[in-house]
Amino acid sequence: MPVAIITGASRGLGRALAEALAARGWDLVLDARGAEALKEAAEAVAGHGTRVAALPGDVTDGRHRAGLVAAAWDLGGVDLLVSNASALGAEPLVRLGELPLDGLRRALEVNVVAALGLVQEALPLLRESAAGAVVAISSDAGAEAYETWGGYGASKAALDQLAAVLGVEEPGLRVWAVDPGDMATDLYAAAVPDDDDPRPAPESVVPAFLRLVDERPASGRYDAPALVEGR
To answer: Count of H helices and E strands in the chain?
Structure first.
């Protein structure tokens, strides 16, 4: 069975992707900081009959990243790596003039440095896979100037660039930066707690990720809602 590592998998998009891949027979290595929420998610995902390794921890910890890859090796390798764990930099979001620099550092460490660190750790196994792929969860805040989203957006813009270069440097892999669009997630609620407008559930964009895995288009940046609509 193919094996995927998914970070930030206890809820939201990460959990939705885990459920969808498990339903297709994928074995999974799941990460999140909250041990109880991760355990509950892993038990639910394992209900599809696949093997699931759940490792609570912080992706900024190199030992934790090594543990994720080791767990995937035990399951047979790494065919897909999804960097979904994210930090906002401030909760709720604030303007750049008020953004704590420690918060910005945290966003860069989680969203950029740790994502690259995990790729570096998994790269030998990804290269051995017949269909190795990396998915970096991006954001339109990395491409557009939205008030209060500057720190988070800067980290996602950096992640986009890392993904683009990795795709050039590793032509045997597929490297996709994917903007999932607006979603009703805990991350968004923490970012803008006063925004009660309805948003799509994370499950609504999962077909976009499955399409990437199935069709394996060229490495690049993709918009999940457009993929769902067939564009």
So the answer is: 9, 7
pLDDT tens-digit series, residues 54-89: 999 999 999 999 999 999 999 999 999 999 999 999
Residue 155 designated active-site = no
List 83, 86, 129, 138, catalytic entry? 138
Residue 156 is a catalytic residue: yes
Contacts of 190 (CB under 8 A, 6+ apart): 88, 91, 92
| Active-site residue, selected from the candidate residues 129, 156, 219, 222 | 156
DSSP character for 142?
G
Backbone angles phi, psi at 19, to 5 degrees: -60, -45
Residue of 152, 155, 219, 222 marked catalytic: 152
Chain mean position to CA 51: 20
39 is an active site residue: no
The first and second tokens of residue 97, run together, are 């003039």
Name every residue whose Cβ is closer than 8 Å to that of residue 30 and which is 6 or more positions away in sequence: 6, 9, 10, 14, 18, 38, 41, 42, 45, 52, 53, 54, 55
Nearest C-alpha neighbor of 30 from the set 13, 16, 14: 14
Per-residue pLDDT of 91-111, as tens digits, reads: 999 999 999 999 999 999 999
